[in-house]
Amino acid sequence: EAGVAQSPRYKIIEKRQSVAFWCNPISGHATLYWYQQILGQGPKLLIQFQNNGVVDDSQLPKDRFSAERLKGVDSTLKIQPAKLEDSAVYLCASSLVSGNTIYFGEGSWLTVV
Amino acid sequence: GDSVTQMEGPVTLSEEAFLTINCTYTATGYPSLFWYVQYPGEGLQLLLKATKADDKGSNKGFEATYRKETTSFHLEKGSVQVSDSAVYFCALTPSTTNAGKSTFGDGTTLTVKP
């Protein structure tokens, strides 16, 4: 079974530039999550989708972060404009609607300089 | 709100030593508890889980028991290997089946030396 796919794996950008990350969840998983993991900390949930609807985006900095999940499968997370403190790993994950086990992708590593 | 506290690292052990990584939690109701492992340059992988009190999760020689009376979920392994070197995260999800509200600890870095 294919896992959660993410791209790009690594990205370096200057502050105030924009960046986008892509995620393809495990087939059949209706729930998709984006987490931010700052070095030395555990992941923090940014946004959760159920199919193509947003379930929770209470911790998403909406002035600069946006996410969409068109057609209820792939998802894109965008940051514009980036700040130095956005340097982190952005983890995409998915789960079955009724399950409580999360499956993570390998992450997209962002460095803002 | 919910919280997870892990023992501070880093932890350095010799191969074949016994491992314990402490984890305690604060939550309402009856959360599910998890241990995730993150190898260098990779995302998190589920290591084991327990969904109710006194359950024992186990995988790859690791085990942890859900102790409601002490609100703990300590990770143990009887004989560690160099390949176990990684960062270990304890996490919980609330009593509902919504995994999105997972709360993670800050991770404990384990280094195993030959």
Give the quaternary arrangement of the chains: heterodimer
Question: DSSP strand (E) fraction of chain B?
Answer: over 45%
Helical content of chain A (DSSP H or I, runs of 4+): under 10%
**Sequence of secondary-structure elements of chain B:** EEEEEEEEEEEE
The termini of chain B sit apart by 41 Å
Write the layout of secondary structure elements.
The complex is a heterodimer of chains A (113) and B (114).
Chain A: E1 5-7, E2 10-13, E3 19-24, E4 31-37, E5 44-50, E6 53-56, E7 65-68, E8 75-79, E9 88-95, E10 103-104, E11 108-112
Parallel strand pairs in A: 2-11
Antiparallel strand pairs in A: 1-3, 3-8, 4-5, 4-9, 5-6, 7-8, 9-10, 9-11
Chain B: E1 3-6, E2 11-14, E3 19-21, E4 23-26, E5 32-38, E6 44-50, E7 56-59, E8 62-65, E9 75-77, E10 86-93, E11 103-104, E12 108-113
What does this 3D model show about the protein?
The complex is a heterodimer of chains A (113) and B (114). By secondary structure, chain A is mostly beta strands. Chain A is 0% helix and 49% strand. Chain A is built from no helices and eleven strands. In chain A, strand 5 and strand 6 (53-56) form a beta hairpin. The model of chain A has no long low-confidence stretch (mean pLDDT 92). Chain B is mainly β and 114 residues long. Chain B is built from no helices and twelve strands. Chain B has strands at residues 3-6, 11-14, 19-21, 23-26, 32-38, 44-50, 56-59, 62-65, 75-77, 86-93, 103-104, 108-113. In chain B, the strands form three sheets. In chain B, strands 2, 5, 6, 10, 11 and 12 form a six-stranded mixed beta sheet that branches. In chain B, strands 3-9-8-7 form a four-stranded antiparallel beta sheet, with no helix packed on it. Chain B starts with a strand and ends with a strand. The chains are: A mainly beta (113), B mainly beta (114). Chain A binds chain B through residues 4, 6, 31, 33, 40-45, 48, 55-56, 89, 91, 95, 98-107, and chain B through 4, 32, 34, 36, 41-46, 49, 51, 89, 91, 93, 97-102, 104-107.
